[in-house]
Records
---
Amino acid sequence: MDAIMVEGLSKQYGKVVALRDLNLTVAEGVVFGLLGPNGAGKSTLIKALVGALTPSSGKARVLGLDPLRDQRDLRRRIGYMPQEPALYSDLSARENIAFFARAHDLPNLEGCVDDVLTLTDLGDRADDPVRTFSGGMQRRVSLACALAHRPRVLFLDEPTAAVDPVLRARFWRTFREMATTGVTLFISTHLMDEALLCDQVAVVRAGETVITGPPKEILDLGKTRLTFHRGAAVERQTIGGHPEDLAAALHARGLAAEVTAIEIERDTLEAVIFGLIAPQEQENHG
Amino acid sequence: MIHTLGVARRVLTQLVHDRRLLALSVAAPLVIIYLLKLFLDTMPPGFDVARYAVPIAAFLVHFLAFLLCAIVLVQERTEGTLARMLINGYRRPEILGGYLLGYLGLATLQAIAALTEVLVLFKLSYSAGILIALFIVVWLLAIASVMLGIFISTFARNAAQVFPFIPLVILPSVFLSGLLVDVTRLPHWAQVLGHLLPLFYANQVIQVLIGPNGSLDARSGDVAVLVAYSLVLLLVASRTLAEAE
């Protein structure tokens, strides 16, 4: 069974179309990245999947459950970390985590709270008010709130936005570790380089899916620029992004003794994704 | 019920942590009542101070409970904690019940402080039965205020937008509830409007309670309206406590 299934999902706010006939599936235990620029509909899709809004049309299932009809059953199985910290600043990290976890009627609430405090490395500041925390620490508390009840599917809305590189790396290490335990992670981000850390990605633009697949396959859609140095002479060639394209180009040219150096410049994933998004962007503005 | 108590506990913990807010919430009615005392001291001898002082104490609790609840609920919406509560599995009636219990705790503290100051400053004395009845009326009014605050918060996108509702909701209460003038002397439409305000019924009951041979039974109809008012607002508030779309 797929952890997440979305079929023809649309959401319209008056004349504004936030999601347009969106389709995707996410297998269990994978880290799925939802990529797209700000305003692409990422948060709207996550809200539809956690049952926080009613879609205009289409179907969504999480662990086989309807996010609206099976709200109660589903909410025990999912965790949600919103884009904003969504914490009570007067309360401590422990009080915040315990408050949101209490909704799940956990048999060992205190133990679960201690576990996530350790996992997010907040043990030392657990009893300090959240208002005294840095932005990064607040993100960690927010993540801990989403994890305390040990959800099977975790929805993270831009968890690494405005987070320093060290904490970002630590977050991704935690996400990858969780995926090894069978948890499905559905992560939205506008940071294209984070796509490489996912097992599967979907690129969305203006509420529509532009492409879905493993990041490596998307990377292969890019171009590779070769620069051959033959003594003082320089020759340039642009080929496809597949490794086979490189082999073919080298075979065609042969590696003659006068070739003194070859520079290979591959499109980054960000460039490939931007290339996919840009034509649509021009279409929308044209 | 456990979830309702959990929300109430969280609201009270926040209030306890925010000592400045707690202190100001209790001190503000006390200062205003003292200023009222200075004002009423200028009235000619024989002026019935109790007629104004006791309902004004109830009004202050009503006003502060409404204002605090409306602002805090708007904050819950704008900061995303309300959506997070709902997505985590707290249900709307549990959230409303928790807010009600939490702010009723604060309203009780305010009511005790304000009514005690009124009794001491204006040298008023009532039987234990009348005092209990007065507390019940103030409590009922506070419940309506909390629900009104939650309802009004639906129409505000940020805390600043709550403020225009203060003159719209609170000042008509002062003018049309019989607190300052006899409502029968108002135009008919204004009387009808007055009957839509919870303070009207609270004032009616309070005036009877502090009068000679006062008893709650005499105005049981008004008490019932106050209860019904709270229940209707509870229903409306639970419907308007929409999830973040």
---
Amino acid sequence: MIKITNMNDDYLLKIVQLEVLNQQDKNVKINLEHLLKEDLGLSSMNLVFLITEITNKLDLSILDFSDDELLNLKSVSDLVILLSAKMKIKN
Amino acid sequence: MKINDIIQKLGNSNGKLITFKKSKRIELHFKDLFPIIKRASLWLNKNSLNSTTTLGILANNGFEWVVADLACIWGGVKIFPIQKGEDINLYLSTSLKFSAVLIGSDYMDSQEEIEKFGIQCILLNELIPEEDNIFKHAGLNIMPGDENLQPYNYNDKEIFSYKSTSGSTGFPKVIGQSVESTENSIRNGQDLFQHKDDDSILVYLPLNLLHQRYWLYSAIIYQFTVIIVPSRYVFEAIKQEKPTVIMGVPHIYEVIRVEFIKSLGLNIGNDLYDNNYSEVFKGYLGGKIRCLWTGSAPIAVDVIEFYFKLGVPMYQGYGMTETCIIAKNFPGNNKIGSVGKPWPNLEIIFDDENQILVKSKFPVSENYAMCSEEDKQTFRDDGYVATGDIGYMDKDGFLFIKGRKKEMIVLSNSKKIYPSEIETKLRCNKEIIHCILYGNEHPYLVALIIPATGITEETIKIIINEHNNISKQENQIYRFLIKHADLSDAISNQNKILRSKVYKKYATEFEKLYD
């Protein structure tokens, strides 16, 4: 079981959960272990849309992410960790 | 319009480029770009990179690509776009010779790998002023003597740029596109769509694709704005840059449609068309949108209808690497469901199997620079290009595509998949008896799996995840369906899966995997 290690990540997870739920258009409980493609069915373009929405809420830019970073995202946990890292750089 | 006009008009063009260098937004008139291009072309010239040279390029959409491209056009240098992770060794074994590879700042970690093949790498930083000095350099005077560096004078038949695509066997195909073919595409694109100085065209698909670079050249010559962004920035660019035209592929339009409807708190089935949502939708697309281009893969008719009904015309087209644009819908000449009328200066006929055959007055090429034996049949002795697509033309002269001659799966993001290759690999696992991929016109692959007796879903999931971890994105299987079923009625006497029978039998269940 992957656990949130600080409040900031908890906050990020809530934002990710909310946005993924918007994308899913169905009532599912999103957890850190969920795989973005296999479990949630997000295509690369869906993922770009999702991250664009999240970065807008966090006052980040999707241009702060490299293509490689986006390609390497496998799970909700990966996404939260990456967002957390970008937030730390920004702050 | 001539290719030679691109550089000739650059110094006077009021057209505008909006793009990025890393995350820094750059907006400048082409006439202000001119000294930067001249400086970069001088650099190439002083390093003996000229019209006899082919340069690979590995870069993301952005300022570096634009400068490299225009500097190469200035010098007559032929560009060969390459992708990260591509097996460059394949190209070295042919007559294609890279003098060097231009590397963008996002790909500097690839330098060592490329140099292992004995190829020189040129970092695009060397051609382009430092980020902070771009505008300072824009006003820089060219050194005495450098004024003599004249742009290269292209002739109609010579190669303008190379382009590559995956071949039907998975072995890459490389083609050198002629100058006259490029000119025919750009000239007719402008004639049919009449882009004006208040137009701004959004390009987010890779500049590796020559037909995406047409919009850069058009913007210089016909003096409008081109917005060139990395694909990950496309949704933000629509909102921030407010384009009038978007060059896209079906999948992005599907995503936009779904997300717009969700943003209204509605469902796909809701009737939007009688509720004055047109202005809201145009606002969702930035507020200035005039029309959309779609191509590279089939698009569902109901998606196109959605856009038209909300007042945003979407024009579907059709083309291939070997022919450039074959057909296109355009304002005043549009039929939803068709790929449009034949492109000017191009003849379309059909063979006995209704395969579309194309002959152009200005052919892309007469052969491949590199391909498999099988692919050589594409260029026929009678001058026609065999497209591999089955279609027909209606009484009004609109072309309709019915399907692929072979079984290739084309995802809605235009990625082409060869299913048997993946299926065969997965069947190498003893846990899997049969695997049938599905995904034509959908954003990703799904699969029907017939497992061996006693094998659980968890085990199959592990195998699929292992496959996904080592596969390119388009070859990954996002969802799958397990059936402990007998497929004997869908297996030929040579033990081959009869794909169409499987698709027909499980059509509903395959489609549910995209819910």
---
Amino acid sequence: MTMRGFGAFLAYRLARTLVALWLVSSVVFVVMRLSGDPVPLLLPPDAPTSEIFRVRHDLGLDRPLAVQYAVFLQNVLHGDFGRSIHFRQGAMGVALGYLPATLELGAAAFLIAVLCALPIGILSAVRRNSPLDHGAMGFALIGQSAPTFFIGVLLILVFSLRLNLFPTSGRGGLAHLVLPAATLGAFTMASIARITRSAMLEVLRTDFVRTARAKGVAEAAVIVKHTLKNASLPIITITGLQLGTLLGGAIVTETVFAWPGMGRLAVESIYNRDYPVVQAVVFIAAVLFVVINFTLDMLYGVLDPRIREAG
Amino acid sequence: MARTVRTGTGLSRRELLRRAAGAGAAAAGGIFQAGWAAPAAAQTTQKRDLIVAQGGDVSRFDPHMSTSSNDVRVSFNLFDNLLSRHPDGQLFPGLATQWKRTDPTTWEFKLLDGVKWHNGDPFTSDDAKFSLERTYDPAAHTLVATVFTTIDRIEAPTPASLVIHTKKPDPLLPARLAFYGGQIVPKKYLTAAGPDQFNAKPVGTGPMRFVSWVKDDKAVFEAYPQYWAGRIDVDRVVFRPIPETAARVAAVLRGEVDLITQLSPDQWDRVNQNPSTMGKGVLYAGLYVLGVNSKVKPLDNPLVKQAMSLAIDRQSIVKDLWRGRGLVPNGLIAKGDNHYDPSLPPLPYDPARAKAKLKEGNYNNEPVIIETTVGYVANDKAMSEAIAAMWKDVGVNVRVEVIEYSVRAEHNRDRSFKGLWWSDPTSTLGDPDGMMWRLLAPGGPMDYWRNPEWDKLGTDARFSIDEKFRDQAYKRMNQMALQYLPWIPVIQPSEDYGIQKYVAFTPNGNQQLDIRRFNFHMRRG
């Protein structure tokens, strides 16, 4: 790719990103407003009607939807996501306050998932149809199909209460991170392990692997250099997508483990009809997704010359 | 407690999660039975921290800006009221040492001398006057604006005395001063700092002093050494939100927290069987009722409503859905309140009479709709389903619709419920005036049924200082209410807590959580 080509590619990607963010924000804006009025939730049940109208007016909710939308867009362009109705602070500030906890949990879950899944997937592929393969894939099936809250509660019961190894909930040191990260990472681990296995199997069947073996390349090198490298594209795709999910806030895990993250904030804010906070959270999540996807695209280019040339 | 404004909590909203977690806990139940090795049961402790886990986070510290139970548990310990309602239901001195009615509409209060706010400012009667006036000051936009509507004006003749003039005789003024809205806030600090800053860094006179708050993580407080009623028995108090019941219970079982609120009935035995923990329950100061829109057909027909009430097998609901953690009400006055009549029998279950009443009332198969929330009050959806089945058995054409919290709040505001809905009226004053009259009076939040005699009795009783008359009035009102059923009372549940055995604590049925000396200490070895 020439420098100019790369520049155009970047500009194109950036434009697409902006459109995506605009669409996401708009959809959330409309859906939240259609879903209900925050004012009754803010006021006591015996609040007089005049008070309801005053609060509505103060929040700008008495204006036509189109006007509210225009104001919203204009403010967002200036980086202003409005004030949280519930917290009475800047919505973006509130949401960003929850981001570190979510990133910490997401990153830990991701690490656990990848560090466990890759060896499991590779071993399963190499020792195909062995008891190890069957065991690992059975385990992965459970990880992928068991509901998160079930895994979460089970881990609390076993590792906190029975084995007394980790705290039951809350955010604190490393020990606090283990169970929620394992819970959150379970699904990801299972998907990456399965995709790793099948991608590896695909490549292991190819001629160049047979050739490599035939010319006496060491088995470890065959697996890592020849097979894994060529199997890496689907693995990276799935891994990247999963990373987005992990970082976008893990509602169930955060609730079960009382983890003060963005997922929980999002749910609370939806219940409270706290439009600005919901918008800010979704915006952050969307940015994370977009950044990850963008990075993935770049990685593809690095890993696969065919994509680089076509791009 | 007014849960409609219980924003920022999360505990009971996520029925899906909770049910699922319940299923998880059940599935994993074997692990408990398999006998996990609990740490040796500690009946005493040297801990200097008290960690409380509740179902949702604090949303506000400004006591006049919230009536949600998660906030009230905190604000009642940051601040003092002039009077204090102890768990036995009696009123005790708070910032006021003495109070008396000098004429039917005048109350005089003697206030404590030498009390200091957490920031060192002296507390005076000016603060008290400012606080009470702030609650109904339209410019302050508080959430407790209706608590002191009987007050005409307040005087602060000396720093240690306060005089309150009511518009009409108000026998319950002391009770009003003891509950939410009555927390006394610092005039000087609040005026200088402004409400937002005050909410962010609250200053009170209470037994604990604000230190820090990380939203959805923990709120930290320290013992206020100069607390006028004596420094509390711990150095630090932490309130943590743990929304998921299973996780909250696990936290107390493992000893990570000292006290949990909202212990669910199905976990009661588990907490009691664990050697180091125990359950502590108190009858809720209020009732769980089905509100009735008596303006829609067929609920405008008292006979139909009587039939529906007769068709509810409340014993089974208490036994099966609540594992016995509650009791069957005998009317619209909660047990423990003034004017509760212990001689009345529990509301009867009689499907045969219910059928007869339906016939007598010419019930013509009109649809009856229960709009249930999921977790607004504990067990609401399960109870709705059970009651719907009971009503179908006697021939009521009933349908259950699930609605969301905000929809409930809107219906509540517009008084637009389609039929029946769940409510958990709290008895804020230990008196029917603070419960059925507060909610069912003309213009009240649950005003769907009117009767001139009932209305007159309610008004007269509110403004009467003749206790005999009030007693007669409420007896009659209860009788009439059971005939016309503006509410269908279902259960008076137990408010359950899980605690470490070394915690000596008595819960209050009104969801106050006093960690003051009279109510709380750690058992020291």
